[in-house]
Amino acid sequence: MGMVMQMRLLQLVVLFIGVFELNGVVCSYTRPPVRKTIFVPHDDDDSNSPEQVHISQVGQDKMRISWITSNSGPAKVEYGPSPSSIAFSETGSTSSYHYTLYESGEIHDVVIGPLKPNTVYYYRLGDPPSSRTYQLKTPPSQLPIKFAVTGDLGQTEWTKSTLEHIEKSNYDMLLLAGDLAYADMVQELWDSYGRLVEPLASQRPWMVTQGNHEIEKIPIIHSEPFTAFNARWRMPYEESASDSNLYYSFDVAGGVHVIMLGSYTDFEAGSSQYQWLQGDLKKVDRSKTPWVVVLIHAPWYNSNQAHQGEKESVNMKAALEGLLYQARVDFVFAGHVHAYERFTRVYKDKADNCGPVHITIGDGGNREGLATNYIDPKPDISIFTEASFGHGILEVFNASHALWSWHRNDNDEATASDSAWLTTLTSNPACK
Protein backbone atom coordinates (compact mmCIF):
# COMPACT_ATOMS: atom_id res chain seq x y z
CA MET A 1 0.00 0.00 0.00
CA GLY A 2 3.06 2.26 0.09
CA MET A 3 2.74 2.81 -3.65
CA VAL A 4 -0.92 3.70 -3.22
CA MET A 5 -0.05 6.38 -0.66
CA GLN A 6 2.60 7.79 -2.99
CA MET A 7 0.10 7.98 -5.83
CA ARG A 8 -2.46 9.68 -3.58
CA LEU A 9 0.15 12.37 -2.91
CA LEU A 10 0.67 12.65 -6.66
CA GLN A 11 -3.09 13.17 -7.10
CA LEU A 12 -3.04 16.13 -4.73
CA VAL A 13 -0.14 17.67 -6.63
CA VAL A 14 -1.95 17.26 -9.96
CA LEU A 15 -5.16 18.74 -8.59
CA PHE A 16 -3.18 21.70 -7.29
CA ILE A 17 -1.54 22.19 -10.71
CA GLY A 18 -4.55 22.14 -12.96
CA VAL A 19 -7.75 20.70 -11.49
CA PHE A 20 -7.62 17.96 -14.10
CA GLU A 21 -8.78 20.13 -17.02
CA LEU A 22 -12.42 20.21 -15.87
CA ASN A 23 -13.17 23.85 -16.55
CA GLY A 24 -16.85 23.96 -15.60
CA VAL A 25 -18.53 26.15 -13.03
CA VAL A 26 -17.79 24.92 -9.51
CA CYS A 27 -20.74 24.96 -7.11
CA SER A 28 -20.33 24.32 -3.41
CA TYR A 29 -22.47 21.67 -1.82
CA THR A 30 -22.17 19.56 1.31
CA ARG A 31 -21.56 15.85 1.04
CA PRO A 32 -22.52 13.67 4.00
CA PRO A 33 -20.04 11.17 5.45
CA VAL A 34 -19.37 8.16 3.23
CA ARG A 35 -18.45 4.59 3.85
CA LYS A 36 -14.82 3.56 3.54
CA THR A 37 -13.15 2.46 0.32
CA ILE A 38 -12.68 -1.28 -0.10
CA PHE A 39 -9.31 -2.50 -1.35
CA VAL A 40 -9.52 -6.07 -2.67
CA PRO A 41 -6.11 -7.79 -2.87
CA HIS A 42 -5.22 -10.66 -5.15
CA ASP A 43 -5.56 -13.47 -2.61
CA ASP A 44 -5.05 -16.53 -4.78
CA ASP A 45 -2.08 -18.77 -3.93
CA ASP A 46 -1.18 -18.94 -7.63
CA SER A 47 0.01 -15.45 -8.55
CA ASN A 48 -0.61 -16.19 -12.23
CA SER A 49 -4.21 -17.34 -11.85
CA PRO A 50 -6.88 -15.38 -13.78
CA GLU A 51 -8.37 -12.39 -12.02
CA GLN A 52 -10.57 -9.37 -12.77
CA VAL A 53 -12.69 -11.44 -15.16
CA HIS A 54 -15.46 -9.58 -16.96
CA ILE A 55 -17.50 -10.06 -20.11
CA SER A 56 -19.11 -7.81 -22.70
CA GLN A 57 -21.35 -8.41 -25.69
CA VAL A 58 -19.84 -8.41 -29.18
CA GLY A 59 -22.38 -8.53 -31.98
CA GLN A 60 -25.60 -10.46 -31.52
CA ASP A 61 -24.16 -13.86 -30.60
CA LYS A 62 -20.65 -13.40 -29.22
CA MET A 63 -19.04 -12.43 -25.93
CA ARG A 64 -15.67 -10.90 -25.15
CA ILE A 65 -14.06 -12.37 -22.05
CA SER A 66 -11.33 -10.25 -20.46
CA TRP A 67 -9.04 -11.13 -17.59
CA ILE A 68 -5.61 -10.35 -16.14
CA THR A 69 -2.70 -12.55 -15.11
CA SER A 70 0.60 -11.65 -13.47
CA ASN A 71 2.71 -13.41 -16.09
CA SER A 72 2.38 -13.84 -19.83
CA GLY A 73 0.54 -16.82 -21.24
CA PRO A 74 -1.87 -17.78 -24.00
CA ALA A 75 -5.12 -15.83 -24.28
CA LYS A 76 -7.35 -18.87 -24.62
CA VAL A 77 -10.89 -19.68 -23.50
CA GLU A 78 -12.42 -23.15 -23.43
CA TYR A 79 -16.21 -23.19 -23.12
CA GLY A 80 -19.30 -25.33 -23.43
CA PRO A 81 -22.92 -25.83 -22.31
CA SER A 82 -22.02 -27.71 -19.12
CA PRO A 83 -18.98 -28.20 -16.86
CA SER A 84 -18.51 -31.66 -18.35
CA SER A 85 -19.00 -30.52 -21.96
CA ILE A 86 -16.39 -27.82 -22.44
CA ALA A 87 -15.59 -28.73 -26.03
CA PHE A 88 -15.07 -25.39 -27.79
CA SER A 89 -12.11 -23.03 -27.61
CA GLU A 90 -11.06 -19.63 -28.94
CA THR A 91 -7.84 -17.66 -28.74
CA GLY A 92 -7.41 -13.90 -28.59
CA SER A 93 -4.92 -11.17 -27.81
CA THR A 94 -2.78 -10.11 -24.86
CA SER A 95 -1.67 -6.59 -24.02
CA SER A 96 -0.39 -4.46 -21.14
CA TYR A 97 0.22 -0.82 -20.34
CA HIS A 98 2.48 1.45 -18.30
CA TYR A 99 1.35 4.39 -16.20
CA THR A 100 4.17 6.35 -14.56
CA LEU A 101 5.85 3.75 -12.29
CA TYR A 102 3.02 1.22 -12.60
CA GLU A 103 3.11 -1.72 -15.02
CA SER A 104 -0.12 -3.64 -15.53
CA GLY A 105 -0.46 -7.37 -15.59
CA GLU A 106 -1.10 -9.22 -18.83
CA ILE A 107 -4.58 -8.23 -20.08
CA HIS A 108 -6.21 -11.02 -22.11
CA ASP A 109 -9.17 -10.52 -24.46
CA VAL A 110 -10.91 -13.42 -26.21
CA VAL A 111 -14.15 -13.33 -28.21
CA ILE A 112 -16.14 -16.57 -28.05
CA GLY A 113 -19.12 -17.69 -30.13
CA PRO A 114 -21.45 -18.03 -31.86
CA LEU A 115 -23.48 -18.55 -28.71
CA LYS A 116 -27.13 -19.40 -28.23
CA PRO A 117 -29.29 -16.67 -26.67
CA ASN A 118 -30.53 -16.81 -23.09
CA THR A 119 -28.22 -19.74 -22.38
CA VAL A 120 -25.74 -20.55 -19.61
CA TYR A 121 -22.21 -21.42 -20.72
CA TYR A 122 -19.28 -22.64 -18.65
CA TYR A 123 -15.73 -21.54 -19.38
CA ARG A 124 -12.11 -21.89 -18.30
CA LEU A 125 -9.29 -19.45 -18.93
CA GLY A 126 -5.69 -19.82 -20.12
CA ASP A 127 -3.57 -22.66 -21.50
CA PRO A 128 -3.26 -24.89 -19.59
CA PRO A 129 -6.74 -23.95 -18.39
CA SER A 130 -7.26 -22.58 -14.92
CA SER A 131 -8.61 -24.91 -12.27
CA ARG A 132 -11.65 -22.70 -11.75
CA THR A 133 -14.69 -23.02 -14.02
CA TYR A 134 -16.70 -19.83 -14.58
CA GLN A 135 -20.19 -19.46 -15.98
CA LEU A 136 -21.98 -16.80 -17.98
CA LYS A 137 -25.48 -16.28 -19.28
CA THR A 138 -26.13 -14.75 -22.68
CA PRO A 139 -28.87 -12.12 -23.14
CA PRO A 140 -32.15 -13.10 -24.79
CA SER A 141 -32.51 -12.72 -28.56
CA GLN A 142 -35.95 -11.15 -28.25
CA LEU A 143 -37.89 -9.12 -25.73
CA PRO A 144 -38.36 -9.06 -22.78
CA ILE A 145 -34.96 -8.05 -21.37
CA LYS A 146 -33.91 -6.67 -18.00
CA PHE A 147 -31.12 -4.08 -17.70
CA ALA A 148 -29.43 -3.09 -14.47
CA VAL A 149 -28.40 0.57 -14.74
CA THR A 150 -25.88 2.36 -12.55
CA GLY A 151 -23.22 5.04 -12.59
CA ASP A 152 -20.38 6.38 -10.46
CA LEU A 153 -19.97 2.96 -8.91
CA GLY A 154 -16.60 3.19 -7.17
CA GLN A 155 -15.50 0.64 -4.60
CA THR A 156 -16.84 1.50 -1.18
CA GLU A 157 -19.02 -0.38 1.24
CA TRP A 158 -21.97 1.34 -0.46
CA THR A 159 -20.74 -0.13 -3.75
CA LYS A 160 -20.72 -3.56 -2.19
CA SER A 161 -24.36 -3.29 -1.15
CA THR A 162 -25.34 -1.91 -4.57
CA LEU A 163 -23.68 -4.88 -6.26
CA GLU A 164 -25.45 -7.29 -3.91
CA HIS A 165 -28.81 -5.71 -4.79
CA ILE A 166 -28.10 -5.80 -8.52
CA GLU A 167 -27.13 -9.46 -8.30
CA LYS A 168 -30.48 -10.30 -6.68
CA SER A 169 -32.36 -8.57 -9.51
CA ASN A 170 -31.57 -11.40 -11.97
CA TYR A 171 -30.61 -8.89 -14.65
CA ASP A 172 -29.56 -9.79 -18.21
CA MET A 173 -27.09 -6.96 -18.86
CA LEU A 174 -25.57 -4.10 -16.88
CA LEU A 175 -25.25 -0.58 -18.31
CA LEU A 176 -22.78 1.71 -16.51
CA ALA A 177 -22.78 5.46 -17.19
CA GLY A 178 -19.13 6.17 -16.38
CA ASP A 179 -16.88 6.59 -13.33
CA LEU A 180 -16.06 2.97 -12.68
CA ALA A 181 -13.19 2.44 -10.24
CA TYR A 182 -12.45 5.95 -8.94
CA ALA A 183 -8.81 4.96 -9.25
CA ASP A 184 -7.82 8.56 -10.01
CA MET A 185 -4.31 7.61 -11.16
CA VAL A 186 -3.76 4.96 -8.44
CA GLN A 187 -3.58 2.01 -10.82
CA GLU A 188 -3.66 -0.56 -8.03
CA LEU A 189 -7.23 0.60 -7.42
CA TRP A 190 -8.13 -0.46 -10.96
CA ASP A 191 -6.94 -3.96 -9.99
CA SER A 192 -8.93 -3.84 -6.76
CA TYR A 193 -12.06 -2.73 -8.65
CA GLY A 194 -11.70 -5.56 -11.16
CA ARG A 195 -11.60 -8.07 -8.32
CA LEU A 196 -14.55 -6.44 -6.55
CA VAL A 197 -16.90 -6.60 -9.55
CA GLU A 198 -15.70 -9.95 -10.93
CA PRO A 199 -18.42 -12.08 -9.26
CA LEU A 200 -21.06 -10.19 -11.27
CA ALA A 201 -19.08 -9.02 -14.28
CA SER A 202 -17.86 -12.53 -15.08
CA GLN A 203 -21.45 -13.82 -15.33
CA ARG A 204 -23.39 -11.12 -17.22
CA PRO A 205 -22.23 -8.65 -19.87
CA TRP A 206 -21.19 -5.26 -18.50
CA MET A 207 -21.41 -2.46 -21.07
CA VAL A 208 -19.72 0.72 -19.89
CA THR A 209 -18.82 4.22 -20.97
CA GLN A 210 -16.25 6.55 -19.46
CA GLY A 211 -16.57 9.37 -16.96
CA ASN A 212 -14.25 12.13 -15.76
CA HIS A 213 -12.54 9.80 -13.28
CA GLU A 214 -11.35 7.66 -16.19
CA ILE A 215 -9.38 10.53 -17.80
CA GLU A 216 -6.30 10.08 -15.55
CA LYS A 217 -4.25 12.61 -17.46
CA ILE A 218 -1.24 14.10 -15.66
CA PRO A 219 0.34 17.27 -17.08
CA ILE A 220 3.84 16.54 -18.42
CA ILE A 221 4.03 13.17 -16.62
CA HIS A 222 1.31 11.23 -18.50
CA SER A 223 -0.37 13.10 -21.34
CA GLU A 224 -2.48 10.27 -22.78
CA PRO A 225 -6.05 10.19 -21.37
CA PHE A 226 -8.11 7.04 -20.70
CA THR A 227 -5.05 4.74 -20.73
CA ALA A 228 -6.29 2.30 -18.10
CA PHE A 229 -9.94 2.45 -19.17
CA ASN A 230 -9.18 1.66 -22.81
CA ALA A 231 -6.78 -1.13 -21.91
CA ARG A 232 -8.93 -2.82 -19.25
CA TRP A 233 -12.50 -2.24 -20.47
CA ARG A 234 -12.48 -2.82 -24.19
CA MET A 235 -15.96 -2.41 -25.65
CA PRO A 236 -17.28 -3.52 -29.11
CA TYR A 237 -16.69 -0.21 -30.84
CA GLU A 238 -15.41 -1.88 -34.02
CA GLU A 239 -18.76 -3.64 -34.38
CA SER A 240 -20.57 -0.29 -34.60
CA ALA A 241 -18.02 1.26 -36.98
CA SER A 242 -16.78 3.61 -34.26
CA ASP A 243 -13.14 4.66 -34.23
CA SER A 244 -12.98 5.02 -30.46
CA ASN A 245 -13.56 2.87 -27.39
CA LEU A 246 -15.14 5.98 -25.82
CA TYR A 247 -18.32 5.78 -27.92
CA TYR A 248 -20.08 2.85 -29.57
CA SER A 249 -23.46 1.16 -29.95
CA PHE A 250 -24.98 -2.31 -30.01
CA ASP A 251 -28.30 -4.10 -30.45
CA VAL A 252 -29.71 -6.52 -27.92
CA ALA A 253 -32.84 -8.66 -27.50
CA GLY A 254 -34.01 -7.96 -31.02
CA GLY A 255 -35.64 -4.69 -30.00
CA VAL A 256 -33.24 -2.38 -28.15
CA HIS A 257 -30.46 -0.22 -29.60
CA VAL A 258 -28.04 1.06 -26.95
CA ILE A 259 -25.71 3.99 -27.64
CA MET A 260 -22.77 4.81 -25.36
CA LEU A 261 -21.47 8.36 -25.81
CA GLY A 262 -18.27 9.99 -24.58
CA SER A 263 -18.75 13.16 -22.53
CA TYR A 264 -14.98 13.74 -22.35
CA THR A 265 -13.97 13.36 -25.97
CA ASP A 266 -14.79 15.75 -28.82
CA PHE A 267 -18.52 15.89 -29.57
CA GLU A 268 -18.92 19.15 -31.49
CA ALA A 269 -20.50 19.21 -34.97
CA GLY A 270 -18.00 17.84 -37.45
CA SER A 271 -16.15 15.77 -34.84
CA SER A 272 -15.68 12.03 -35.29
CA GLN A 273 -18.14 11.28 -32.50
CA TYR A 274 -20.78 13.62 -33.91
CA GLN A 275 -20.51 12.17 -37.41
CA TRP A 276 -20.52 8.62 -36.08
CA LEU A 277 -23.63 9.28 -33.94
CA GLN A 278 -25.43 10.91 -36.85
CA GLY A 279 -24.76 7.86 -39.03
CA ASP A 280 -25.54 5.37 -36.28
CA LEU A 281 -28.96 6.87 -35.56
CA LYS A 282 -29.86 6.83 -39.26
CA LYS A 283 -29.17 3.09 -39.43
CA VAL A 284 -31.72 2.17 -36.74
CA ASP A 285 -34.89 0.71 -38.22
CA ARG A 286 -37.49 1.57 -35.59
CA SER A 287 -40.01 -0.86 -37.06
CA LYS A 288 -37.59 -3.64 -36.06
CA THR A 289 -35.85 -1.90 -33.15
CA PRO A 290 -38.51 0.09 -31.30
CA TRP A 291 -36.37 1.18 -28.34
CA VAL A 292 -33.30 3.45 -28.37
CA VAL A 293 -31.36 4.01 -25.13
CA VAL A 294 -28.44 6.44 -24.73
CA LEU A 295 -25.88 6.64 -21.93
CA ILE A 296 -23.68 9.66 -21.21
CA HIS A 297 -21.76 10.65 -18.10
CA ALA A 298 -22.33 14.38 -17.58
CA PRO A 299 -26.12 14.98 -17.46
CA TRP A 300 -27.79 17.43 -19.84
CA TYR A 301 -30.66 17.96 -17.40
CA ASN A 302 -29.92 18.40 -13.72
CA SER A 303 -31.70 20.25 -10.92
CA ASN A 304 -29.06 19.38 -8.33
CA GLN A 305 -26.69 22.15 -7.29
CA ALA A 306 -23.77 19.83 -8.03
CA HIS A 307 -22.05 20.12 -11.41
CA GLN A 308 -24.17 22.97 -12.72
CA GLY A 309 -22.90 24.68 -15.87
CA GLU A 310 -20.05 22.32 -16.75
CA LYS A 311 -19.00 22.42 -20.39
CA GLU A 312 -19.36 18.65 -20.81
CA SER A 313 -23.05 19.01 -20.01
CA VAL A 314 -23.88 22.38 -21.58
CA ASN A 315 -21.86 22.08 -24.78
CA MET A 316 -22.65 18.43 -25.41
CA LYS A 317 -26.35 19.10 -24.98
CA ALA A 318 -26.15 22.01 -27.45
CA ALA A 319 -24.31 19.86 -29.99
CA LEU A 320 -26.20 16.57 -29.77
CA GLU A 321 -29.66 17.06 -28.27
CA GLY A 322 -31.20 17.81 -31.66
CA LEU A 323 -29.84 14.55 -33.13
CA LEU A 324 -31.34 12.50 -30.31
CA TYR A 325 -34.66 14.32 -30.51
CA GLN A 326 -35.03 13.86 -34.28
CA ALA A 327 -34.19 10.16 -33.87
CA ARG A 328 -36.85 9.82 -31.14
CA VAL A 329 -34.50 8.41 -28.51
CA ASP A 330 -36.50 7.00 -25.59
CA PHE A 331 -34.09 7.24 -22.62
CA VAL A 332 -30.93 9.18 -21.77
CA PHE A 333 -29.14 7.88 -18.66
CA ALA A 334 -26.37 9.92 -17.05
CA GLY A 335 -24.09 9.78 -14.03
CA HIS A 336 -21.70 12.39 -12.57
CA VAL A 337 -24.20 13.89 -10.11
CA HIS A 338 -24.20 11.69 -7.02
CA ALA A 339 -27.94 11.49 -6.58
CA TYR A 340 -30.99 10.16 -8.40
CA GLU A 341 -33.27 12.25 -10.59
CA ARG A 342 -35.94 11.44 -13.19
CA PHE A 343 -37.26 14.00 -15.65
CA THR A 344 -40.35 13.93 -17.82
CA ARG A 345 -39.90 13.67 -21.59
CA VAL A 346 -38.07 16.85 -22.43
CA TYR A 347 -36.43 18.82 -25.23
CA LYS A 348 -34.75 22.23 -25.09
CA ASP A 349 -35.58 22.60 -21.39
CA LYS A 350 -39.31 22.13 -21.86
CA ALA A 351 -41.67 19.18 -21.50
CA ASP A 352 -42.07 17.53 -24.90
CA ASN A 353 -43.97 14.31 -25.52
CA CYS A 354 -41.55 13.41 -28.32
CA GLY A 355 -38.38 13.95 -26.28
CA PRO A 356 -36.42 11.36 -24.28
CA VAL A 357 -36.79 10.69 -20.58
CA HIS A 358 -33.60 11.90 -18.86
CA ILE A 359 -32.53 9.99 -15.76
CA THR A 360 -29.50 10.69 -13.55
CA ILE A 361 -28.21 7.53 -11.90
CA GLY A 362 -24.79 8.63 -10.56
CA ASP A 363 -25.38 7.11 -7.13
CA GLY A 364 -23.82 3.67 -7.36
CA GLY A 365 -21.55 3.98 -4.33
CA ASN A 366 -18.69 6.38 -5.00
CA ARG A 367 -16.23 7.53 -2.33
CA GLU A 368 -17.09 11.24 -2.68
CA GLY A 369 -20.54 10.99 -1.10
CA LEU A 370 -23.97 12.20 -2.11
CA ALA A 371 -25.04 15.53 -3.62
CA THR A 372 -27.89 16.52 -1.32
CA ASN A 373 -28.74 20.09 -2.34
CA TYR A 374 -31.23 20.86 -5.09
CA ILE A 375 -32.29 24.02 -6.87
CA ASP A 376 -35.29 25.70 -5.26
CA PRO A 377 -37.89 25.86 -6.67
CA LYS A 378 -37.63 22.52 -8.44
CA PRO A 379 -38.13 22.77 -12.21
CA ASP A 380 -41.50 21.52 -13.44
CA ILE A 381 -39.77 19.05 -15.78
CA SER A 382 -38.11 17.28 -12.82
CA ILE A 383 -40.43 14.50 -11.64
CA PHE A 384 -38.50 12.78 -8.83
CA THR A 385 -35.30 13.51 -6.90
CA GLU A 386 -33.56 11.73 -4.06
CA ALA A 387 -29.99 11.92 -2.79
CA SER A 388 -29.43 8.27 -1.93
CA PHE A 389 -27.17 5.51 -3.18
CA GLY A 390 -28.91 2.91 -5.33
CA HIS A 391 -29.38 1.35 -8.75
CA GLY A 392 -32.01 1.23 -11.47
CA ILE A 393 -33.77 -1.54 -13.36
CA LEU A 394 -35.11 -1.07 -16.89
CA GLU A 395 -37.39 -3.92 -17.95
CA VAL A 396 -38.33 -3.72 -21.62
CA PHE A 397 -41.28 -6.06 -21.89
CA ASN A 398 -42.29 -5.71 -25.52
CA ALA A 399 -42.20 -3.37 -28.52
CA SER A 400 -44.29 -0.74 -26.75
CA HIS A 401 -43.96 -0.92 -22.95
CA ALA A 402 -41.11 -0.74 -20.45
CA LEU A 403 -40.97 -0.42 -16.67
CA TRP A 404 -38.32 1.75 -15.03
CA SER A 405 -37.68 1.42 -11.29
CA TRP A 406 -35.08 2.92 -8.99
CA HIS A 407 -34.03 1.12 -5.82
CA ARG A 408 -32.26 3.02 -3.07
CA ASN A 409 -29.85 1.43 -0.61
CA ASP A 410 -31.82 1.83 2.62
CA ASN A 411 -29.94 0.30 5.55
CA ASP A 412 -28.39 -2.16 3.09
CA GLU A 413 -31.77 -3.20 1.72
CA ALA A 414 -32.85 -2.46 -1.85
CA THR A 415 -35.97 -0.34 -1.40
CA ALA A 416 -38.04 0.51 -4.49
CA SER A 417 -38.48 4.28 -4.29
CA ASP A 418 -39.46 5.43 -7.80
CA SER A 419 -41.01 3.68 -10.78
CA ALA A 420 -42.78 4.54 -14.02
CA TRP A 421 -44.35 2.70 -16.94
CA LEU A 422 -43.23 4.17 -20.26
CA THR A 423 -44.19 3.62 -23.87
CA THR A 424 -41.75 3.88 -26.75
CA LEU A 425 -41.97 6.97 -28.92
CA THR A 426 -42.54 4.77 -31.96
CA SER A 427 -45.99 3.98 -30.55
CA ASN A 428 -46.90 7.68 -30.41
CA PRO A 429 -48.42 8.78 -33.78
CA ALA A 430 -47.60 12.41 -33.03
CA CYS A 431 -43.87 11.60 -32.88
CA LYS A 432 -43.56 9.73 -36.17
UniProtKB/TrEMBL annotation:
In this chain the Purple acid phosphatase N-terminal domain maps to 50-138
Q: Which UniProt keywords apply?
A: Glycoprotein, Hydrolase, Signal, Zinc
Q: Which gene encodes it?
A: LOC107493953
**Cofactor requirement:** Fe cation; Zn(2+)
Which leading EC class covers this enzyme? Answer: hydrolase
**What's the protein called, per UniProt?**
Purple acid phosphatase
Instruction: Give the family this protein belongs to, as stated in its UniProt record.
Output: Belongs to the metallophosphoesterase superfamily. Purple acid phosphatase family.
Question: Annotated Gene Ontology MF terms?
Answer: acid phosphatase activity; metal ion binding
Q: Which PANTHER family match?
A: ACID PHOSPHATASE RELATED, PURPLE ACID PHOSPHATASE
Q: Which residues form the Calcineurin-like phosphoesterase domain?
A: 145-340
Q: What is its EC number?
A: 3.1.3.2
Quick one: signal sequence residues? 1-27
**Where in the numbering of this chain does the Purple acid phosphatase C-terminal domain appear?**
355-413
Q: Which reaction does it catalyse?
A: a phosphate monoester + H2O = an alcohol + phosphate
**Record's Pfam families?**
Metallophos, Metallophos_C, Pur_ac_phosph_N
